[in-house]
Amino acid sequence: MNALATTRHPTVREQAEALARGDTTSVALVEAALARIATHRAAGGNAYVGEVEAEAALQAARASDAARAGGHVPSPLAGLPVSIKDLFDVQGQVTRAGSAVMAGAPAQADAVAVARLRAAGAVLLGRTNLSEFAFSGLGLNPHYGTPANPHDPSRITGGSTSGGAATVALDLATVALGTDTGGSIRIPSAFCGLTGFKPTARRVPLAGAYPLSRSLDSAGPLARSVDCCAVVDAILSGEALDTRAAPLAGLRLGVTDDFVMDGVEPEVAAAFDGALQRLSAAGARIVRFSFTELHQLPSLNAAGGLIAAEAWQVHRARLEDPAQEAQYDHRVAQRTRRGAAISAADYIDLQDARLRLQATARERLCDLDAWLMPTVAVRAPRLADLTGDDARFFATNGLVLRNTTVLNFLDGCALSLPCQAPGELPLGLSVGGVHGADARVLQVGRAIEACLRAG
Fold it and tell me: What's the pLDDT at 423?
């Protein structure tokens, strides 16, 4: 369980520098990743779903090496292997969204995010596993299998970007493209010892990505460092932000015990408190503030919330057809069907309540550089505890999603940084901000990351 935590994994920038020096080639990097994928799959691993198109990836790698030799290097990601969540259209491939019911025609064009990765020179390796239709924070998939946590195979990777996290943690890709509607980038990043970035929704175009919730969906990277995330975010969003590290001394980092600390496991609380102590010792100011309004969230979302209402609109026709409904993960179908009972008036009331909480968040966070909390209240659950007990599954899913969902509901942005003691199960530290604070979150995230790694 400790081997991955102590292994030094190169970042995007380090691999780009190795390519620039001629120490390696894109072909060598892709061949090594393909070999590890073959070993992973031979052992029963299911981080990738469907075909990994090895020859197409090697052709792209050879083209990247030739372009580099001719002086054309479009981005630091050029020549590096990338995995794609099976929600995004890739030209010529079927987008199944982790479901057995999606067996349509191959996509006619790349999703915008995929097209931007291609234009940046990334080498696409394959499509990654996920919770069906991205509708769970746990990552279980009854159709294609559930990826095992690379740090402890008895535990889950978290979801919904379960396979994407496994590809990065196991060096089956340098970075993964994921989505985040209620925590689907940050939860698996926390459980797998990675860094994940959920940008402000709509900064990254979602055309060509299968929707879950039009109000909450966002797309971003799972990677090894804040810098890796910043590199990929600039490509995906088309927006080059100033993400240089902020000086840690004097930063005002907000912490609230309201809601997000309820029921936190002792190991998670200890790791979070330890991180706060290190940051304080390095000169950051830990500012305790009250946000009692967060306790409204369970009642606001009691009927299923925006996700159920908007997912029902997407899936209604299929779920009203018994033959198609039978092909769904029954837990996903059950959660989605809750949206049928949400009236238009209820939906509008919920959107209005969301706007009010967003205004409160802007007021509470206006003098802070970032808002810190544990990414997830618990360590990665054991798969055996979730497979046969629906009540336990839904209770665990709600607890795992609770903290990350706060930032989605508030239309904010957030990083999850690794925050565990050496040799312990991975945990995450959330560095969040309000709508549009992406650059500041990345700047502060770099400073916090440097402090935690030094400690």
Answer: 85
Beta bridge partners of 425: none
Q: List, in order, residues 6 or more apart from 140 with CB less than 8 Å away.
A: 131, 146, 156, 159, 329, 383, 386, 387, 393
Active site residue 85: yes
Asked if 184 is an active-site residue, the reply is yes
Cis peptide bond prior to 237, omega within 30° of 0: no
In terms of phi and psi (left: phi > 0; alpha: psi -120 to 50; beta: otherwise), the region of 422 is beta
pLDDT at 388: 87
pLDDT computed for residue 430 by the predictor:
98
CA 126 to chain centre: 17
Q: Give the residue from 185, 286, 275 showing the smallest Cα distance to 236.
A: 185
Compute the distance between CA of residue 107 and CA of residue 95 in angstroms, rounded to an integer.
7
Residue 425 CA to residue 346 CA, distance in Å, equals 41
Please identify which of the residues 26, 99, 162, 184 carries the catalytic annotation: 184
Nearest CA-CA partner of 183 in 336, 389, 398, 368:
398
Half-sphere exposure of 236 toward its Cβ, with a 13 Å CA cutoff? 34
Residues in Cβ contact with 152 at an 8 Å cutoff, skipping those fewer than 6 apart: 1, 380, 425
- With beta carbons less than 8 A apart as the criterion, state whether 207 and 109 touch: no
**Cα→Cα distances 141→98, 154, 188, 396, Å:** 7, 15, 14, 16
- Per-residue pLDDT of 178-188, as tens digits, reads 999 999 999 99
Nearest C-alpha neighbor of 12 from the set 201, 156, 227? 227
- Of 196, 191, 193, which is closest to residue 382 (Cα–Cα)? 191
DSSP letter assigned to residue 437: -
Q: What is the pLDDT of residue 385?
A: 96
Of 139, 115, 119, 137, the residue nearest 129 (C-alpha): 139
What's the average model confidence in pLDDT over 373-384? Answer: 98
Mean pLDDT computed over every residue of the chain: 96
What are the distances in angstroms from CA 408 to CA 158, 215, 291, 308, 341?
A: 17, 9, 16, 14, 23
**Identified catalytic residue from 83, 85, 162, 430:** 85
- Stretch 299-313: mean pLDDT: 97
The mean pLDDT value for 386-397 works out to 95
The active-site residue, picked from 64, 83, 160, 225, is 160
pLDDT for 107 beyond 90: yes
pLDDT digits (tens, 9 = 90+) for 267-296: 999 999 999 999 999 999 999 999 999 999
Residue 377 is classified by DSSP as S
Alpha carbons 242 and 442: distance in angstroms, whole number: 9
